[in-house]
Amino acid sequence: MIVRAVWAAVLAALALQGVTPPQPITVAAAVSLTEALEEIARAYSSAGGAQVRFNLAGSNVLARQIVSGAPADVFISADDAQMDVVEKAGALVPGSRVVIVENQLAVVSTPDRVDFVRREFARAPAEIRRLAVGDPAAVPAGVYARRYLEEKKLWMSYEPRIVPTTNVRAALTAVETGAVDAAIVYVTDLAAARTAVLALTVPTAEGPRIVYPGALVATSRNPEAKRFLEFLSSPDATAIFTRHKFVVPKRGQAPV
Asked: Which contiguous run of DSSP H or E holds residue 101?
């Protein structure tokens, strides 16, 4: 409420001065970033930046939408592959692509089964009858999960039991509704869990590198878009990402 009051005061002051307020920014972002980005948007607006509107979904869905001409100013993907799709279509501003944050995989389960899943997951026991992951054929979280399971020589065992979902949050929900026994999600998704609990975290050295690149969308004519993308690397945004358990890469890192 305080942020809204501040923003209203800013708009009123600009109107009195005959200044056009900044145009709202539309950000298409991976759904796993939801809570962190919403908090960052509030910080950005309260610091005098434009209001930020989000289109949150699976990165593959967002990539298709942008390539098809859906309006967006900034795109933040949960992997390089979907950002590549948009870039190869000529839908990104050249040179604007940067790594925003990184993440880790985690296995979650229900409280009554978490000890068993923690103990036995690496054996792929028959008691884990259904395992939810983002669709391994399209959703970044599912692609990462498959890479991890393949690296651990578990993919062949778990593949018949995989329940593919439209995005990583849907995999989390599948655990909480009892539709599956466990799910592979991101460590950061635990903050959004209601009943699902952490069974194990995949060490960075054992899992795929999970990166979230961000870039400006070529069709955007909003000057605030570049400012917001830059704000995502600011100390304020970095503190928020860190609090939400994302890993912030060293700044000055070359674009993806």
From this structure: strand 98-103
